[in-house]
Amino acid sequence: MFKKLLSILFIACSVSFYGQTTINGKVYDEYLEPFSNAVVVSGDARATSNFDGNFTLTVKQNFPFEIQVSAFGYKTETIEVTSKDQEINVILKENVALDEVVISASRSPERVIESPVTIERMGEIDIKRNTSPSFYDGLVNLKGIESREANYGFKSINARGFSTFDNTRFVQLVDGVETSIPALNFSAGNLVGLSDLDVKNVEILPGASSALYGANAFNGILLMRSKNPFDHAGISTYIKGGVMSQEAAGNNAFYDVGIRMAYKFNNYVAGKVNLTYFEAEEWHADDTSNTTGIGGTIIEGDRKTNTDYDGVNVYGDEVFYNLNDINAALPLMDVSRTGYDEKDLTNYNSYNLKFDGSIHVRPWANDALEIVLNTRYSRGDNMYQGTNRFSQKGYFIEQYKLEFLGKNFFVRGYYTGNDSGQSHDLRFAAIALNEKYNPSKNWFGEYATVFSTTGSDQQARDYANRNRFVPGTAEFKNALEEVINTPINKGGAAIKDQTSFYHADANYNFRDIIRWGEIQVGGSYRKYDINSNGTLFTDENSGITFDMVGAYSQIQKKLLDDRLKLTGSVRYDKSKNFEGNFSPRLAVNYSLGQTKNHILRASYQTGFRNPSITEQYFGLRSGPKKYILGTSNENIGRFSTTVRNEDGSTDEITGSDAFGKSFESLSNLVKVDVDPIKPEQVTSYEVGYRSIIDLNSKSLLELDINGYYNQYKNFVAFKNVFTPNYGDVASDGTPNAEAQTAFANGDYTEFVLNTNTKAAVDSYGIGIGLNTKVFKTFNFGANYTYTKLVFDQSTDPTFKSGFNTPEHQVKFMFGNQNLFNNFGFNVNLRWQNEFLWQSSFLDATVDARTVLDAQMNYRVPAINSRFKIGGTNLTGKEYMVAPGSGLIGSMYYISWTIND
């Protein structure tokens, strides 16, 4: 009996050992350079090539068997292995962009060419070709994508119009986690995003995406995927430096370094950390042009010629008074206080320290289930432009995520919190400095006394300014330090915000259970905890919390030999302050040709956007007599402020006053009827054509054409109204006698209300993109975008649409990844026509511009390194992104990347 058992055990072990086979091989790119991080699979066995391109794979199969070798952006190669001694050398060739696999369009893997909607993408190959200092900067070269460049680290990405620097209509995700700042509801560029070393790919869906991604995916969504440490292990680093050149700032050095460390402990556990740091000079904002005031326009004049001068980047001069109101013998002449230049109030030094780390656990040693625990931090200094210009000093953002991932599902929860640090409003810093050395009532009195005897603005101003804090002196620095640490609602300039939110979402795909079609279901929940201590929101005396919930489902079905693809989805979302909303989407694709590489598509989709936290709960003082007021029903009841009249008396104004007794303008005192804010909605109709065309035996043309028409309902934008500090509305809709007296005395308060227009707002556009190879090995790409607003201003004269987008954009790309051994280059050229920029800061025309970026790179395989030298805006002609922001100059850089 014992011998039989021993024999059985021996046979079992023999079979086991016989079934385990170890093979070795090497992966190269098409230039025969070692290819790292290629994924090699056979059945359940999985391996990754190292920095030298080598891999070792252990399989439980007998010869012969097949292995698949793949990498994002490259064609998958299948190799038959017939013996252990077989020499395995795999060459991965670059994939056609339209043939690559994306997930964002349908939350399910599919080729770009088969996507039911327009999609733009950037992969690892594109990042290496990139002419910009970072992958995020390079997104502007994609078709239909715009970038609002504020400074070295802060860019705001958008598509299809309607945005400023604070783009609340566009959602940005990193590995499924939204990167928006909780208090502001928009993403601050890539400050909480990925390092260039950790980017797997980037996908952008221009246009409404609410059906799958919920509220606020209104203009589009950007999804960044990082590299998994199970597949991408090792240490990589980069060192980058160069010069930023601007007429206002001169030439200033910048530095940028990063490191990624990932380790696969075994088939069960892997982990990674990323650390990046940069220092750079902000683009200086020094526009001294005269304006009509906050949110107004640029006009003629300067400090020497205009007594009521109010400069674009000069602050404190917003406070003005009419001399005739002080002394009836003096002329009817407005006089403004002497302001401080922006450069006197901030040092323009910026930095960002960014860290993220994650632990990945696969309980069954495969991707059937992966548990991810991730944390992400970002701290730094930079400038931000909203209604005013803000110096964000010592801001801090933190995120924590726990996620369960499987082949057909995910469940995740995360927390995001922000701390504004020593952030402050530059306009109110200047106003507070002026009040500190000489209160306005006294200053204007002194000015009037001297002016009455001399008739000279300069002499009167010099006398009233005699005790003015002089920039650069110790007295000035001490006074500035005091006002920027005093909360803005207490007479200073400081923003004290620690808003946060909790989020959970889940998705399940029934593709392995239901075979006739692909069905997905999912849902999400979010809860906000607003905490600005009254410096931004109406939460000085009581906290604010609110939540939102959503659920969605999608069905996809292929018919007619997989040529016809039908997609239908619907989502329901409900927020505390608003009624629930359904967002349906229908799409159809049809594949033409024998190879099915000519795709026609059409879609009907809807989007909606719940008003942002600022649009709901703002109670922000934006000028001496001006407030931005959030207009949710709850906030109207919460808002109350004490205003000072010209004679020194005070009155209280409430949110109900701003809604119930406001007038259109000082020159047209007609009552304005404004409703509390509601969610805005968009209905989008889109058609498109994608094709991979054989030009000859060695060259393909990728063609992508799309057109869309958007119809908006309850579109949200700013409306300026004027409220008398006392008095009311007469029965005929005009100010009663007391209110007329208030306006005559200058005793009024201006409100910027976030509200919905009743006017029809539409937009439409087309996009054409092509990519091919010319002269055998050179990459060439070109795209054109046309975007048009349809809005009759006469139907709502005081409404600002804030479209802020050029009608025409043209972009070109030309390069060669391997012009000769290990040497490559790339060039990007962008042109756009002029357009009108509208915002609560200032309205102005942004001039047409042409921007040229280029880079050269050289690979040194012996040390696994890539050196790159490049520059942006090489023509040297500075351009304006938005009125009030610093002009964008040129950047010249050199970088050294190891093990990319």
Key features of this structure:
mainly beta, five-stranded mixed beta sheet, 12% helix, 900 residues, globular
Report on the architecture of this protein:
- This protein is mostly beta strands and 900 residues long.
- It is 12% helix and 48% strand.
- It has 14 helices and 56 strands.
- The strands form 13 sheets. It has a 22-stranded antiparallel barrel. The chain has a five-stranded mixed β-sheet with strand order 10-15-16-13-14. It has a five-stranded mixed β-sheet with strand order 37-38-46-45-49.
Give unreliable regions as ranges: 4-18
Strand content: over 45%
Average pLDDT figure: 90
Largest sheet: 22 strands, antiparallel, barrel
Helical stretch tally: 14
Question: Approximately how much helix is present in the residues?
Answer: 10-25%
The tally of strands reads: 56
Distance between the first and last residues' Cα: 61 Å
Oligomer: single chain
Q: Which outline best applies?
A: globular
User: Rg from C-alpha positions?
Assistant: 30 Å
SS-based class: mainly beta
List the helices and strands and how they pair.
Elements: H1 2-19, E1 21-29, E2 39-42, E3 45-48, E4 54-59, E5 65-70, E6 77-81, E7 88-92, E8 101-102, E9 110-111, E10 120-123, H2 124-129, H3 135-138, E11 145-149, E12 155-159, E13 170-174, E14 177-178, E15 199-206, H4 210-213, E16 220-226, E17 234-246, E18 250-264, E19 269-281, E20 290-291, E21 298-299, E22 314-315, E23 320-322, H5 323-326, E24 334-336, E25 340-341, H6 342-345, E26 349-361, E27 370-385, E28 389-405, E29 409-419, E30 424-425, H7 426-437, H8 440-454, H9 457-464, H10 474-484, E31 500-509, E32 518-530, E33 544-559, E34 564-575, E35 581-592, E36 598-609, H11 613-617, E37 619-623, E38 626-629, H12 633-638, E39 640-644, E40 650-654, H13 655-660, E41 663-665, E42 668-671, E43 680-696, E44 699-713, E45 716-724, H14 737-744, E46 748-756, E47 761-774, E48 778-791, E49 799-800, E50 808-820, E51 823-832, E52 835-837, E53 844-846, E54 849-860, E55 865-872, E56 890-898
Parallel strand pairs: 1-7, 13-16, 38-46
Antiparallel strand pairs: 1-4, 2-3, 2-5, 5-6, 8-9, 10-15, 11-12, 13-14, 15-16, 17-18, 17-56, 18-19, 19-26, 20-21, 22-25, 23-24, 26-27, 27-28, 28-29, 28-30, 29-31, 31-32, 32-33, 33-34, 34-35, 35-36, 36-43, 37-38, 39-40, 41-42, 43-44, 44-47, 45-46, 45-49, 47-48, 48-50, 50-51, 51-54, 52-53, 54-55, ...
